[in-house]
Amino acid sequence: xxxxxxxxxxxxxxxxxxxxxxxxxxxxQLNWAPPGTAxxxxxxxxxxxxCEDVYIQGVLQNKxxxxxxxxxxxxxGLENIPGVGDGWAEIQSSPQTLTPLLEYDLAVRxxxxxxxxxxxxxxxxxxxKFYDDEVPAAAVLVFLVxxxxxxxxxIAAIKGMQGVKGLPY
Length: 169
Known about the structure:
Blueprint: H1 3-22, H2 27-31, H3 41-60, H4 66-69, H5 72-76, H6 87-92, H7 98-117, H8 121-125, E1 127-130, E2 133-136, H9 137-161
Antiparallel strand pairs: 1-2
Helix pairs in contact: 1-9, 3-7, 3-9
């Protein structure tokens, strides 16, 4: 199987899992603070989506984030995304509703789709700066899938702690 086809298949599967995991989540479940040091669903989901935004727009394309160009901070009511500045503390102390988070997710998905439509072997092999390393663009996409999958598992577990089904299977 060619690399592009495999990566697209992985990202498609990730998208399906995200939709299934967030389906039927109420605002109460979204904002519930789990015991210990675990993050809420709202913080984890926003982090998951904003990382895709950072990786695809910022790292791979050196473009402004969808967060910035779409004014999502204002729409969601946050100055920072989780992982930037005081973003973790800000999201934890800010009540959220699911709809704006899902709308930001959709905007990021569409921007990702635009990038993926142009994906070819040259782009997959292009070396980019990713954290403290230089890696092929394909490695960033692989990390996006594994990173996001882990966070979807966290969200499913937090839903389970609330007595609801986190995954449909």
